[in-house]
# Entry
Amino acid sequence: MHDIDLSREHTDPYAEGRPPLAVDRQRIVYSAAFRRLQYKTQVFVARRGDHFRSRMTHTLEVAGLARTIAERLGLNADLAEVIALAHDLGHPPFGHAGERALHKCMKRHGGRFEHNEQTLRVVTYLEHPYPLFRGLNLTTAVRACLQTHTTRYDRPGEQPALPAPVEGQVVAQADQLAYAMHDLQDGFYSGLLEPPELADIELWRAAYDGPPTPSREDCLRHLRPTVERMQLMLVDDLKGTFERRRGTSG
# Structure
């Protein structure tokens, strides 16, 4: 386990005597921004049914997966979970389409909208539950990882980033694995994917253990265990890649 910076930007009497990451976790989960994730679109809008993922359920799945990956890699699982719980607090409604629309509006005024920048703005300024300072006053390690969180949808900011621990990269990987796995499930639930299309996915074929020529009902019955095996296979691959790179750099 490596050292991480658990200091805070502001003097914080409200956090005294409690584990720093436990304080961060509580502040994120109790924030208004976290509650707003409940009705923000992941892929399918809420009126399609309550079985599809929202931005909140996506966040919870990323947090669980980030914790699992961090534990497998011998990293700080508490830190990874906290980063994951906060990583989408700045995401707008309507998924990445909403983000593109806001960016287009801001660009006309010489600005920009990028949801990771907005996440950092939420936790450092927009949330204001404490009278002594703006923001949630999260630990430096958590803020650094939120500032440097990137996926293929992002437009990284130009400002210099805080030095970020590797747990931030774990969350970025967990984010991508989580949405790949739950988008597959939601796509099948919605009827956008059918058994022949699933059979075209090499990872699905490696994880599936149902009837060789499955009906839709067969796939539905085996969907959850197959996706769980796919996820574990991807985590194992990630662990192997991490260890090889660590061995090369060491």
User: Anything to note?
Assistant: The chain is about 60% helix and 0% strand.
